[in-house]
# Entry
Amino acid sequence: MKIAKVLLGFIKYSIAEKLPFYRNIVAKFISNPVFASSDITPAELTTALDNFEASIGAARDGGHTPIAIMHDNEHAVDKLFRNAAHYVDKIADGDETIILSSGFLASNQPKTHQKPPLAAFDGDHSGEVDLYAKANDKAGSYKWEYVEGPVPTDERAWIPITTTTAAHHTVRGLKVGVIHQFRVAAVTPSGITDFCAPVSKLVV
# Structure
């Protein structure tokens, strides 16, 4: 029988993805008596997340110091939740149900191994974002679009970036400290596919 383990891939999530993921874990810790013996309290996790969220807002002006503070707070919450993940692993002892009840993801969930339609990562330089799309075997090219701020309700708000033959692209010259939305569509012999669900990324 396969033994389930807590997946630690959340460390590589974008900042915008980490907040709701971590908040969900805190909510499940509070309501689950299985984790009552943890040395890491919901209050400690919540305080760290509040500080992290506040620093994200402060970093939106693009200042070097606020951005540095944001990353320091990100590393702090990552460490806390990594420790929480190890604790859940110990308590669960391979039980997938217990792991999932904590809000973390388990290693033997098939869906966690599927490549997402689009992933966004920090580029090599400030103001850059590396985009990686799930390759489409029938695609001859890929159309990339973005928008600053939240996902728009008006399709006309999306701004074309470029069209590439590869399923990855680096976007440069973005406004630092601002959350951007990205999406991609494949161009196939039968036409252009629907754009994927937008992916949020705070540009640093």
Remarks:
- The first helix runs from residue 15 to 31.
- The chain is about 35% helix and 20% strand.
